[in-house]
Write a structure and sequence with these properties.
It is a single chain. Helix content is about 45%, strand content about 20%. It is α+β, with helices and mostly antiparallel strands and about 280 residues long. It is elongated, with a radius of gyration of 41 Å.
Length: about 280
């Protein structure tokens, strides 16, 4: 009996071991493989660290060639060109003389200006001329060239004009005895820069003409008082905008009688409650 009992107990243990091996192989075999792979990876890494050190040698600091290198060179060329022109506006083109067309002289030059095929140049750079407020440039124009050739008072009621024709002021010039030029506000007194137009024959030189001629407004900061009518088409509101010699102002008004001409500065200085410097 003791032999038989021993055989049965031994057989039971064998079954248990076989069952455990079967379960481990069917359920945990994938985990075991992963563990073996991980242990092998650590062993290889440790061997590499022992032979070569734990850190890789740094690469030399030679710059890699990228597209931005050529772009940077191009940008620096533009900056240098702009700096050269900003330092001396007369380098680009020489303006030997100019004539400001006064309002009473419009009939003399009307045909010439009406038949000219114009090329326009707006605010196209980050130069001081293009980033200065239009109202500031207007006061400098007044000092340098006198009163504008035309203002909204002469052009007419906004209801009878296109959006592009609703301006604050317009200067007409003849440069070097032959070049017709018009200087216009961009979009009222609160915008920046000026629009310049000349004959399409000078289209390629228009930027140079603008810098050479209007650059004198930047070279000197002399200002003179003025007052203009300004109509804001978005607000549908009229203003008298100007400079009183000390500060800029905007006075909101009702619809003016444009047949009476331009606003008189002294009538609006005391009422300039909406001053904007």
């Amino acid at each position: 009996m003791s032999g038989l009992l021993f055989f049965r107990m031994r057989y039971r243990y064998v079954l248990i071991v076989l069952f455990a091996v079967f379960i481990t192989d069917s359920v945990g075999s994938q985990t075991l493989i992963e563990r073996l792979r991980w242990e092998r990876t650590k062993a290889l890494a440790s061997e590499a660290f022992r032979s070569d050190g734990a850190r890789l040698e740094p690469l030399p600091t030679d710059p890699l060639g990228v597209r931005s290198d050529s772009i940077r060179q191009w940008i620096m060329t533009l900056i240098k060109d702009r700096s050269d022109r900003d330092s001396d506006y007369d380098d680009a083109i020489r303006i030997s003389n100019w004539q400001t067309i006064r309002m009473i002289e419009i009939p003399v030059y009307q045909t010439q200006f009406d038949t000219t095929k114009w090329a326009f140049l707006g605010v196209s750079s980050i130069s001081e001329l293009d980033t200065t407020q239009t109202r500031e440039l207007r006061s400098r124009l007044e000092y340098r060239f006198g009163r504008p050739t035309r203002t909204l008072a002469e052009i007419g009621q906004p209801s009878e004009l296109s959006r592009a024709e609703i301006i604050e002021f317009e200067y007409w010039f003849i440069l070097n005895d032959t070049i017709p030029v018009i200087v216009i506000d961009v979009n009222g007194p609160w915008d920046r820069g000026l629009v310049m137009a000349s004959s399409h024959r000078y289209r390629e030189q228009l930027s140079e003409i603008k810098d050479a001629f209007l650059g004198q407004l930047i070279a000197r900061e002399d200002r003179k008082p003025f007052a203009d009518y300004y109509y804001n088409p978005e607000e549908k509101v009229w203003y008298v905008t100007g400079f009183d010699g000390a500060s800029f102002f905007d006075v909101r008004i009702g619809r003016p009688n444009l047949e009476l001409g331009r606003p008189i500065l002294v009538e609006y200085i005391s009422g300039a409650g909406q001053s904007q410097e």
